[in-house]
Amino acid sequence: MSVLSHSRRGPARVRYNIIIYALLILASIILGFPLIFALSLALQGPVPNPSLLPRDLTQLDWGVFLQVFEQQPQIIRWIFNSFVVASGVTLGVLFTSSLMAYALSYLKFPGKTLLLFFALGSLMVPFEATLIPNYLLVARLRWSDSFQGLILPFVASGFGVFLLRQYFLTLPRDLYDAALVDGCTRLRYLWSILLPLSRPALATLAVYTFLTTWNQFYWPLLVTNSTEWRTTQVGITVFRNFEFAVFNIQMAATLIVMLPTLLLLILGQRQLVSGLTAGALKG
Amino acid sequence: MFASPAIIIFSIFTYLPFFHAIFLSLNVTNNQGEAARFNGLGYYARVLGLDGTGRTDYLQSILTSFQFALLVVPPVILVALSLALLATAQVRGIQVFRTIFTSSIAISLASAGVIWALIYSPSTKATTWLVELLNLGTPGLLSSDATALPAVAVMTIWSGIGFNFIITLSGLQAIPVDLYESAAIDGANRIQSFRFITLPMLSPTLLFLFVINTIGSLQAFTQFFLLLPDRTPTVYVYETFLAFWGDNRYGLASAMSIILFVILLILTSIQYGVLNRRVNYS
User: Which domain, by its residues, includes B221?
Assistant: First the structure.
């Protein structure tokens, strides 16, 4: 795995390490620049022409993170909305995907292959190609500004069905046959045996779905009209349109809504990475 | 039937809307999005510049989209590859740096767009030096024809580094160590092992990233909405949004989205070809 680790000893090894660390730190600073910039602007107070880095490090305005909630109390509602929507979609995807993947991997019925193509085919239809009719449907049902409008279109995932089916197929089939002989019902087997055994795959799907839903922008932009129904992603962009818009509040709000997904990355990195690697299949 | 919840959702929110979009694309629609008059392939001809009026604005926006993809895809893969090579170094604390390099996957395009809008804004002076260096004659990078698209591309590259890094790193880690060991015994230097082991073994991953990133770049919407809302000509997906959301021309916008579907379908089939080759390699 190591392209850069030809073995060395003594002073050569030290020199090599110094160069590697220097490069790693340099790359981190360049990549982290936008976040450092955002934090710097947030902490400089409501000035019209902030400088790149704070001039006086003893005068940092940490209170800005509280001011965000005073100036735009709706942000609490936006975070709540995003949590409800991302959790709702995640639970929905776990529910529909595990049921369908179960049918596709364990049960025998006519048209099974066709059904698999039905699920996988949904991955070939890009979001943009269904956007307009879906918007018209939601508008006609008067689901604009509602949780069902934000959640329901996304509670089935071809990727989820595929991922869980592949995982279910790796588990021993004998277990299923034995359980049925012992009088276990099919639903009971799914709930009490298969799903607990599939925790790694479910966690991967959950973390991936939560992250992508939390970060959605286009759809919430279309189906939310009133300020209180905005999700965080749409919400942070409206700060730009305020007349009293000041950079510090805007950057502080952006940093606040970034926290949940950054935490998710740090805590669930393994799940997220395997989800993204597999999710890349869907294009 | 266990599959029915998923089937119902796929039908209502994926397949029916898709066929509905095809239907709408063949009709002139009213303001409620109902078909008012059959228009045949009129909108397709209009978008592809074949309607005889000589208007090629939409065709131009498709080209702009590909131009944008070209500005994003090779650099993002190159940067990610360099970072991934760096991150294979066996030094203490490497995991921290790997997390930092991955972090942009957790930052949404909307957050990135809001931050980069200020990086490019003349009032923060973060990029004024570049505007002066290039002698643009405009207040900011986003207001000049020459730099607007590259500026959005830089933001998109930053946003995509995390994903490309982590995929490239797992690709590198999948290369068997004994290949490098036997090459070292045979006297290969580091550049030779990169050229003759790493690159060929990694090429399926890189090809895969190339297609995935191209598809993603062609679908780019959020960053154009936030950074270049008033600019024309713009990229194809943003033009589609303007036709749909701005002008309520549901039929025209549907035709545009079906054309996008065909373009992406071609790219996706290339992707599956690449994936099959990937399977053969391993």
Answer: 59-281
